[in-house]
Amino acid sequence: MLVGIALGGTGALIQALTHNPLADHSVLGINASASFDVVLSIMFFGATSIESYMSWAFIGAAITTLLAYLAR
After folding, report:
1. Which residues contact 30 (CB under 8 A, 6 or more apart)?
2. What mean pLDDT comes out for the span 29-50?
3. How many CB atoms lie within 10 A of CB 56?
4. What does the pLDDT read at residue 14?
5. Is there a contact between 51 and 20 (Cβ–Cβ < 8 Å)?
6. Separation CA 36–CA 56 (nearest Å)
7. Hey, how many other C-beta atoms are within 10 angstroms of the C-beta on 37?
8. For 19, phi and psi rounded to 5 degrees?
């Protein structure tokens, strides 16, 4: 239930920040950026733990969100 609440909250936040009712984390490429960042962390930094995957995914998602916000 907490994951559903978090996903709903992030969707509403992205829609409010971009002033676009169709904005979604997958449409803006935030999911892809988080996944790509995890792959890069495995390739170049040797990340092997779940905690490091989550950290790198958060960093990638945050950067993409910031870029999407600044580009509006």
Report:
1. 14, 61, 64, 65, 68
2. 93
3. 21
4. 83
5. no
6. 9
7. 22
8. 55, 40
pLDDT in tens, 20-36: 888 877 778 888 999 99
All residues at 6 or more sequence positions from 41 whose CB lies less than 8 Å from its CB, including other chains: 47, 52, 53, 56
Q: How far is CA 25 from CA 20, 29, 46, 60, in A?
A: 12, 6, 27, 12
How far is it, in rounded angstroms, from Cα 28 to Cα 17?
12
Confidence band (pLDDT; 50, 70, 90) for 52?
Answer: very high
The tokens describing 33, both together, are 């950026």
